[in-house]
Amino acid sequence: MTVQAIKNNLPSSPAFVLNEVELIKNLEILNILRQQSGCKVLYSIKSLPFSTVLAMAKPFVDGFSVSSLFEARLANEILAGSGSLHLTTPGIRPDEIDELSALCSHISFNSLTQHQRFAPGAQAQTSVGLRINPKLSFVKDDRFNPCRKSSKLGVDIDALWQSSTIDNIQGLHIHTVFAATDFAPLLKTIEKIKLYMSDKLGKLAWLNLGGGYLFNQINDHRPFIKAVNQLKNDFGLDVYIEPGKAIIDPGIHLVATVLDCFASDGKTIAVLDTSVNHNPEVFEYQWQPALYEHDAHGRYKTLLVGGTCLAGDVFGEYSFAKPLAVGDRVVFSNVGAYSLVKASRFNGHNLPDIYLSGSGQLKQLKHYTYQAYREQWLADC
Ligand SMILES: Cc1ncc(COP(=O)(O)O)c(C=O)c1O
Questions:
Q1: β-strands 329-332, 314-320: how paired?
Q2: 240, 209 Cβ separation under 8 angstroms
Q3: What separation in Å is there between the alpha carbon of 164 and the centre of ligand 1?
Q4: Residue span of the structural domain in which 334 resides
Q5: Which residue minimizes the CA distance to atom 4 of ligand 1?
Q6: 44 lines ligand 1 (CB under 6 A)
């Protein structure tokens, strides 16, 4: 279904629209990579734990990766016993470890102290590993950099090298990049791990290479395939990847409607029925999402803003071929990852509906009701 057809036929707004064709294409790319390299693929559900996405991904992946008990419960419901469930998080609670280890096939503890406290409680069927911080920074913006100075994410590779804990685990987990479009960081990271512990790798069962790579935007997969083959052949490791964004981006779009238009200090303002609270990273990181209608040569510059009372609830200035009018629809493209999962009902503005655009039809998958809002805010007693 074309974007124009979606705009014309969508029964309600604002709405996230899942494009089935695009999402399946992302999954097929990973499936081919899985066949070519022998790596195992997990969907990192933190990017969007929506059940339809999980069910769509399930036939193409070897399992899911999670970061909390709630994610583990949900992933487990969808997997229904058919796939691996990997967990890593700095925030394991003592009262959750029993259930976590009952649900998760693999747990990568985030620190030596976390391992010390919780590994003895992990059940026999859980394969225990450690997340390591290889101390290689590839991300310039420290807000996204797992290897930033004084990072909280993973065991310092130098500390691990000197610790005997490496002899008591079955796997390692690394995750060092954000939205990477080439494999150079991965190859450098693997090289460093080999340099430090090639004598230990053969004793491990698995290596989880994390997420952060946009596999569908990288044309040449050969360096990845070669690296995975080497890890498998040289050390007998099961190699996992756990992409999030690469599975749902491109493919999920946010459709909004113009509620009001006016001029302010010489700029045209268009107020939308969505807000940055439906895509909070726009505000958190001050980035401007791509807009389907934006025309770089368009004469009509317009500031798209959200409909809440926050002054900074602004998506940014876009150019249009013709002026926007009340009732027009606009589409933020490829905004499925880390948007709805972080969204709130600030100002009492409802969350967007969710639709699936399949072959020629739009199907409503979710409508958040006033009851859901009320339930969130009414005290239990
Ligand atoms: C440990 C871990 N694995 C996987 C992911 C998924 O990353 P992405 O959605 O960028 O592929 C993240 C994202 O923050 C992560 O922290």
A1: unpaired
A2: yes
A3: 28
A4: 3-17+251-377
A5: 211
A6: yes
